[in-house]
Amino acid sequence: MKPHTLSILVENKAGVLSRVTGLFSRRGFNIESLAVGPCEEPDMSRITIVAIADDEKVEQIMKQLNKLIDVIKVSDLTGNPRVERELALIKVTAEVGTSRAEIMQIAEIFRASIVDVSPKSLILQVIGDTEKIEAMETLLRQYGIKEFVRTGTVGILRGTKAQQGNK
Amino acid sequence: MKTGAKILVESLQREGTEIIFGYPGGVVLPIYDELYDSSLRHILVRHEQAAAHAADGYARASGRVGVCLATSGPGACNLVTGIATAYMDSIPIVALTGQVPTNLLGNDAFQESDITGITMPITKHNYLVKNAADLGRTIQEAFYIAGTGRPGPVLVDIPKDVSTSSAKDVALPEKVTLRGYNPTYHGHKRQIEKALQLITDAENPVIYAGGGVILSNASAELVTIATELGIPITTTLMGLGAIPGDHPLNLGMLGMHGTEYANFAITECDLLFAIGVRFDDRVTGKTETFAANAKIIHIDVDPAEIGKNKHVDVPIVGDVKAVLTDMLTCLKKQGGHDTWIKKIRHWKQHHPLKCPDDGRLHPQYIIRQMSELLGGDAIIVSEVGQNQMWTAQHFCFKNPRTWITSGGLGTMGYGLPAAMGAHFARPDLPVFDVAGDGSIQMNIQEFGTIAAENIPVKIAILNNRFLGMVRQWQELFYDRRYSFTELPPVEFVKIANAYGIEGIKVESPDDVKSALQASLDCNGPFVIDFRVEREENVFPMVPAGCAINEMIGGHPQ
Questions:
Q1: A chain contacts of residue B125, beta-carbon cutoff 8 Å
Q2: Among A60, A115, B367, B515, which one has the highest count of C-beta atoms within 10 angstroms of its own C-beta?
């Protein structure tokens, strides 16, 4: 069992997301993360789903996804050279004169930016792969994380090759 | 400009629809008003579930897309079991439902239910139409999706204001193209060559054929290939009729209630040639021991079925008929696996299906009499349970599309409405519904439909005053604790008579033949209430989770 990153190109139509996610839950898959948005074609969207399962199960779910009429293309990015990113916003307790400097130092190390400052807290924005986000979360926990929100992973293959809309 | 309702009716006619099974209601009033002057035939059922099953029975018997129609909310929800039944057996139907007007959608309006949401996991695809202008194209797509590739049900939900509002006639394309849907019909050449090589190398090959053969109208190709190569065929419940029951290479059904010789052959074969099947648990028993010594070739139009339950050595994605046709062109006639065939013949001789002969009325005897009387020139529909298994075992099917049963979902109450649909597909053939006293009472209200429309369906009730199959499991695996499986006696002939249907009660094997003949001689529907042995079991039987050669109720090895 390992995380698989699936990139799913779909018709940009009402109900498509629920068809896709419904299939995962129906077949007993937990979705670890999910990201959806418009893509290079105006009438299509791209869904990136990370799910933990063995290879055979993933093959079956990909075949089932391909059967959905509104799904145009399914690719498993896992095992290929790729770029994966997610974004997190972290609200950390940081009273003036206490740990602020330390937190700002951590932010710098992670190349995170401080997007909001208030007398008692800071909001940090960090972009990276899952490991990086989790590492930063662990480091900041000691200062008191008031709120933590992150996007799902988005992924793309390295090089010129692109996922295109021919099933 | 035309109303949505008119566009709908014209679209159905454009797709070649001749009959709709339906039930009116509030939001489909505009559609029903349009049907009032239309040449489309409409059959009023007594419950929407029956409309879906009738459309399904029509589709199975004809090979065309069946159509049913229901109102929103309860009407649509009542279709659900019928849609799921069609989905599990890959049957092409288009289910049309009314919906509350678009401005009330999501408002918990009167008789509103989210039927596209509800049916998402049990349809091949579904639509909620929001504009009358989209209706023509949607219906065209629905029929295309339902009937092509691996067939299946498609639901189209039509809000009331879409039916009443007007739209311009939109020119429709000759051919539907959907970028997300391109089924593969022709098998990969190299895969076909590999398969042929495996077949040539095999000493003990078996063909395992299923509903896919029937759906793709490939029975003739199947029998030709088997005969040319001298390979015995066993079929699934859904594949019965793909090869004539009395063909020397036929092994009958395999699996939980399959013949001993079919299950032995699977267990001992060195090549399993799987055609239009899905390695269902009722077929394989314990998957690890199913054809454990065999290389496996699998043809299926749905790639997701290949390798789903069992590793396959040579997968061939494609339409069964197209692939078998391609195979036939490069086939070399082969010596007939003499030793293997001899072994199978020995099994057939020493392990036949049993039919008790003790002067009492046994269901197996009734089915055999029916088979003899009809000689294959009939459509046999069944309900679900013991009645279904006895029919599958003892009726000698001669042709594809003459055996209609709910295989995957196992829907009790399926038979009678499906038989109604089958009649309209094949009015030239007698249609029998083999029922149990449990199943028939699940849609017995359809006596009203067959009486009103004079649909000449013959209903043979194997009446044992038990929910027989469940009782059998209780007898075998629950220490005869018959928990809620005994049914009080019912006089089915009296119920039939109340609807104006003729009927007869039979209590002795001596009267079976004459009763069946009487049902055939009657021009309309007919009910035979067979009072059979109460605690008869369906044997042989593979207990759940066992290997398929570990059968109980068979012959000693």
A1: 68-70
A2: B367
